[in-house]
Structures are given as structure tokens and as C-alpha cells.
Amino acid sequence: QVIETVLGTAHPEVATYLNNLAELLRVQGKLLEAEPMYKRALAIDERAQGTSHPIIAIRLNNLAELFRDRGLLEEAEPLYQRALAIDMAALGANHPNIATYLNNLAGLYKSRELWDKAAEHYTRAIAIDERALGPNHPDVAIYLNNLAGLYKAQGRLDEAEPLYLRALRINEEALGAEHTDMAIYFNNIALLYKAQGKLQDARLYYEQAIDIGERTLGAEHPQVATRMTNLGALLVDMKELDAAQALFQKALEVRRNTVGENHPDTLNCAEWLESIGEIQAEMA
User: How far apart are CA 164 and CA 145, in angstroms?
Assistant: First the structure.
């Protein structure tokens, strides 16, 4: 309100403030509160900068991401496409911003199970950033990881594996083996190996993901709890029930402390513990 009083309600700085506040609300999960702020920021900048300015592409992309978070995929798609068209005209077809929008559109198409369109957009994003930023840039790793996830969702596990491994190698070299983001890639490869039936390999990658997460995020972080549940489920498959039980118990404590007793993730941990207890009772 102070900024609006000083600069006026139609000043571009007000749009920036509204966009940043909307971003904060979105991160907090307050999606309905964030939406009108994104829309006001977009409207202000369209009046001040014109409808084809690159800042409009950013505002459109942010609003599209919000709609995607809400599951409003049909509403999100034209916003992504308009953002892409604006930056194609302003920056050219080979700018890294284009890769970002192609990646976001690909994620939307994946959510709608439009597999071919998703793969096409991920592949284009990879090609653009390989040319613009180099084949070993972390952004390339992100898009490789996303394309691998698409292939995994389709059951194309053998095609997904080299993409996951290349993304892992890129980030090891660019960020270091102990970087927080490495845990994401270890976890994804573990999920793939579990799907392939390579349970021992999956276990090793889950353990590395948990170890990095505990050291970089802390043992009480929700992401660490998620990886503990992933490893716990794997250990149930491997008939190592005591080790699985210990992991689910740790994850349950983290969930209770971070999201509360009635959150679905907390209830899921409790259900796993109950199931393990039943199996152990049957075996006794």
C-alpha cells in the first residue's frame, strides 16, 4: 500500500512488488491468494510496457505455473504458449528463455499424458540449451532429468536410464557431489532402478540421497522424510522389515513435526508401519 501511494497503482514497480508477493504466497501454498496479485501485475505491465514486452512473458509464465499448481491445465496452456511466442519474437528461437518455456509446456503436456508433445518440447529445450549454454550446463541436466521422467512414466525405462545418469554426471561436475540438488538425481535414479527390479542398486542410490539430504537440509526436512519412505518401501520389497520399520518410524516423526498428524504424508507413514507390523505378526 505504501508503494502504491507513493508511485501510483499503475507503476511498473508496483507490478514487480505484486509479482514477488504472489511468488511468496505460491511457495506457501496460498494459491487462491496469489492469483489476483499475479493478474494485477500482468495487467499493470501490459498497460505500462505493452503486450509484447519480455516482462509480459515472465508474468504470463508465472500465472501459468500457478494454474498448473491448481490443476487448471487448460487455463495454463495458452498462457505458456503466449509467453513462448512473445520471447520467440523478442529474443529469437535459440535463447535460453525459450528452453524454459518449452520445458514448462512439456511438463503440462506430461500431466495431460500427451506424451509425444511433451517429448518434443523437452527435446527442443535440451537442444537449445546445449547450443546456448553448453552440453554440461546444469539447466541441460534439469531438462534431461525431466525427459527421463517422461520416459519412465511411459514405461520406457531403458531409454530413461542414460538420461538420468547423464544429468547426474553433469551436476556432479558443475555443483559437486555433496550439493543438495544431487539428492534429487540420486532419488530419481533409485526410483528407476526399483522399477527395473534392480533393488540393490536402487538401495545404494536412496541411501546416498538420504545422506546428502540429512547433511545439507537437516534430518528433520520433509524431503529427507520422503526419501526415507521411498527406501523403506524398497526394503519391504527386499523383506528387510526391521530396517524398513526404523525408516518409516523416523519419517513419521518428521511428518508429525513438520506437517501435523492428519497430513496425507503422515497418515501414509502410519499405514506403512501398520502393514509392516501385520507382516511381522504373521511371520512370528
Answer: 5
To which H or E segment does residue 151 belong?
helix 138-153
Q: Residue 95 has what DSSP assignment?
A: S
Distance (Å, whole) CA 24 – CA 262: 25
What whole-number distance in Å separates Cα of residue 154 and Cα of residue 192? 12
Tally of CB atoms within 10 A around 120: 15
Work out the end-to-end distance of the chain between its first and last CA atoms, rounded to an integer number of angstroms: 67
User: How many residues in the chain?
Assistant: 284
Alpha-carbon gap, residue 227 to 194, rounded angstroms? 13
- Residue 45's nearest CA partner among 29, 25, 27, 62 is 62
What's the predicted TM-score (pTM) here?
0.85
Give per-residue pLDDT as tens, 212-222.
Answer: 999 999 999 98
Q: How far is CA 238 from the centre of its chain?
A: 29
d(CA 30, CA 32): 6
Is 24 in contact with 60 (CB distance < 8 Å)?
A: no
DSSP conformation class of 93 = T
pLDDT digits (tens, 9 = 90+) for 159-205: 999 999 999 999 999 999 889 999 999 999 999 999 999 999 999 99
Assign 3-class secondary structure to 62-104: HHHHHHHHCCCHHHHHHHHHHHHHHHHHHHCCCCHHHHHHHHH
Q: What angle do CA 102, 14, 45 make, to 5 degrees?
A: 45
| DSSP annotation of 202 | H
Q: Any long-range contacts for 165-168 (C-beta under 8 Å, 24+ apart)?
A: 165/189, 166/141, 167/140, 167/141, 167/142, 168/141
Contact 103, 125 (CB under 8 A): yes
DSSP reduced 3-state for 53: coil
C-alpha cell at 91: 529474443
